User: Which sequence fits this backbone?
């Protein structure tokens, strides 16, 4: 098969899918992004930059919809269990 053609049966071929959700799932989606990047060893200070970056479509959509203050507050709230000193 030529390299520019796709093969529907190729398990490594990238495919997009639409996932049904409620109209306002921004908080749940943002928490998932924050936790995912935290597990990838991103520093908390870098997380807000990810939401600001339009190349990160999902996080940026939340940033545009909810605003920087809301996102910064959610980052702090989500990271609280991992950043509290014992």
Assistant:
């Amino acid at each position: 098969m030529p390299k520019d053609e796709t093969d529907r049966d190729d398990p490594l071929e990238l495919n997009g899918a639409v996932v049904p959700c409620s109209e306002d799932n921004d908080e749940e989606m943002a928490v998932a992004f924050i936790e995912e990047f935290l597990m990838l060893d991103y520093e908390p200070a870098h997380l807000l930059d990810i939401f600001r970056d339009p190349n990160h479509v999902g996080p940026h959509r939340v940033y545009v919809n909810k605003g920087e203050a809301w996102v910064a507050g959610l980052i702090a709230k989500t990271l609280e269990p991992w950043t509290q000193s014992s």
Q: What stands out?
A: The first helix runs from residue 26 to 39. The chain has a mean pLDDT of 84. DSSP finds four helices and no strands in the chain. Residues 57 and 63 are 10 Å apart (CA to CA).
